[in-house]
């Protein structure tokens, strides 16, 4: 493998497949059509999912770019039923407070087509949940070290794990009970980590219904300057 030195650090030669414009267009359309079948699913079966599969999903997410390659994330994968039950109990407590007191009338109105409420059985039903933590900073030998673009980096990693979950034929949903400090306590995470996202992962139930929603067309999500 060819290498060069830059600023005293080794860089390796990068190679990958490239395609003709026609093939690239075909592949991009196929990927979009496939990814457009992804949906948020709350009816998750308790059918077992191998630990190795979850490990692969996490490693796929960890290929995400990050500020200065700090990789400021921790993926806590939980199959322990007692811990899942504790998380559900705490999440539903916060969700009830949100639905009853924190959310505005407009927010609640916007949620009506989706059909959500404060009950979160998927946290216990799913064979695995992954709680993603962002590392606000590193702790190295008792000293703080900076991380950079933490929210952006962790957000990209979460997008990549969503795609990996879909690729594996599994389903999930993005759950963000607010506040989420209870996750830090239950999972006994260090002070430099902050909960970012909870993902229940598994196979869909035999019969699942999702909201009949339409994604925005290209002209509403993109602006081209040619």
Whole-number average pLDDT? 96
Q: What is the name of the CATH superfamily?
A: NADH Oxidase
Q: Could you name the CATH class? A: Alpha Beta
- Parts with pLDDT < 50 across at least 5 consecutive residues: none
What is the helix tally? Answer: 8
Count of all domains:
1
- The helix/strand order is EEHHEHHHEEEHEHEH
Largest sheet: 4 strands, antiparallel
CATH-derived architecture: 3-Layer(aba) Sandwich
Proportion of residues in extended strands: 15-25%
Helicity range: 25-40%
Q: N-to-C terminal Cα separation, in Å?
A: 39 Å
Lateral strand order in the biggest sheet: 3-4-8-7
Q: What is the count of β-strands?
A: 8
CATH topology category name: NADH Oxidase
Judging from the principal axes of the Cα atoms, what is the shape?
globular
Question: What would you call the structural class?
Answer: alpha+beta
Q: Output the radius of gyration.
A: 20 Å
Topology overview:
Layout: E1 3-6, E2 9-12, H1 21-35, H2 51-61, E3 73-78, H3 81-102, H4 105-111, H5 122-125, E4 128-135, E5 137-140, E6 143-146, H6 150-167, E7 171-172, H7 181-186, E8 193-202, H8 218-221
Antiparallel strand pairs: 1-2, 3-4, 4-8, 5-6, 7-8
List the main descriptive attributes of the protein structure presented here:
226 residues; alpha+beta; four-stranded antiparallel beta sheet; 8 strands; single chain; globular; NADH Oxidase; two-stranded antiparallel sheet; 19% strand
What's a quick, concise take on this entry?
38% of the residues lie in helices and 19% in strands. It has 226 residues and is α+β, with helices and mostly antiparallel strands.
């Amino acid at each position: 493998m060819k290498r060069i030195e830059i600023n005293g650090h080794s860089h390796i030669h990068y190679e990958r497949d490239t395609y003709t414009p026609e093939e690239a267009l075909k592949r991009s359309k196929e990927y979009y059509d496939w990814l457009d079948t992804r949906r948020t699913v709350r009816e998750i079966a308790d059918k077992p999912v191998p630990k190795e599969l979850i490990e692969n999903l996490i490693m796929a997410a960890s290929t995400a770019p990050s500020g200065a390659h700090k990789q400021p994330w921790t993926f806590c994968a939980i199959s322990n039923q007692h811990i899942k039950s504790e998380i559900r109990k705490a999440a539903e407590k916060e969700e009830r407070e949100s639905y009853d007191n924190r959310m505005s009338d407009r927010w609640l109105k916007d949620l009506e087509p989706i059909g959500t409420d404060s009950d979160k059985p998927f946290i216990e039903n799913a064979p695995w949940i992954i709680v993603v933590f962002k590392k606000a900073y590193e702790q190295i030998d008792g000293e703080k070290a900076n991380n950079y673009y933490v929210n952006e980096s962790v957000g990209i990693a979460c997008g990549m794990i969503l795609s990996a979950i879909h690729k594996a034929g599994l389903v999930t949903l993005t759950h963000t009970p607010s506040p989420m400090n209870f996750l830090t306590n239950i999972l006994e995470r260090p002070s430099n980590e902050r909960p970012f996202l909870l993902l229940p992962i598994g196979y869909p139930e035999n019969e699942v219904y999702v909201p009949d929603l339409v994604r925005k067309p290209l002209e509403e999500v993109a602006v081209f300057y040619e």
